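Translate sequence into structure tokens.
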Amino acid sequence: MTQINIKRFFKNWGSPLGHALFFIVVTSVVASGFVQAAEINATAKLSWTVPATRENGSALKPTDIASYKVRWGTAPGKTLSTYTVTGTSYDWASPLTIGTDGMVTAYFSVAAIDTDGRESKRSPEASKTFTLLDDSPPSPPVITVVVTCTAPAGFKCEVAP
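Result follows.
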């Protein structure tokens, strides 16, 4: 909790009260550029085209493809997990930890596997960045100051502007 001391002076009508001390309690502080690490449920729709040729240039029929191997990770070229799929798309979902910079990037590549079990080279990586940062500023804080003043009998207590 952050406290800010503000002195407000009273008109002194012979009263022993010289000033009052107020505290504004800030219950929410926004630190620009900082987000605590958090886990999110990330999703991505991946799709690709069926290769028309083998790596040596010879023709490849779509029926020669048995499956595809989808690889993903959170660093380029680093595989965290692999999925085998039979179609040309995959609905990927995984929990990811957002870093203190408010972002995390997932990297994906796909390889074709033919009916003889031979695996192609990986496709070039595609990536998707997930973020928790919001580019709109926060709402302004609401500050409430309550002023009370008491004076001994026969004296008047006023709050100066």
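Note: The CA atoms of residues 40 and 96 lie 5 Å apart.
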